[in-house]
TrEMBL record:
It comes from the Bacteria. The lineage of its organism: Bacteria, Bacillati, Bacillota, Negativicutes, Veillonellales. GO terms for molecular function: protein-disulfide reductase activity. This is Thioredoxin. The active site is at 32 (nucleophile), 35 (nucleophile). Keywords: Disulfide bond, Electron transport, Redox-active center, Transport. It comes from Veillonella tobetsuensis.
Length: 110
């Protein structure tokens, strides 16, 4: 699969903040209906862009991952946050269909 689940703050620091490449982190939760509906859209875009962009997910319900949400100022879900060289580049909030999501990602990576 083209999406990797982040399971610890240390893993986030290493794989996301430590990456020189563009990475996208999908912040979501199991109780969030827009997150659940958007999951196949994110997976489709991740598969299409596999090899060009790394995709990660962070479960906002996981109390051990809350420091990530606080540090990265994630106020709502679903949110997709773009990082490169450990720096936040941009963010997208709310439900997006795959074609809209891909277009927004392409704007950021230009």
């Amino acid at each position: 699969m083209a999406i990797t689940a982040i399971t610890s703050v240390e893993q986030f620091d290493e794989l996301v903040l430590g990456s020189k490449e563009l990475v996208i982190v999908d912040f979501w939760a199991g109780w969030c209906e827009p997150c659940i509906v958007m999951r196949p859209e994110v997976e489709a875009v991740a598969e299409k862009l596999d090899g060009r962009i790394k995709f990660f997910t962070v479960d906002a319900e996981d109390k051990s991952l809350r420091p990530i949400l606080l540090k990265e100022d994630v106020e709502g879900i679903p949110s997709m946050v773009f990082f490169k060289d450990g720096k936040l580049l941009d963010r997208i909030a709310g439900y997006k269909k795959a074609d809209v999501l891909e277009a927004l990602i392409n704007e950021v990576i230009k």
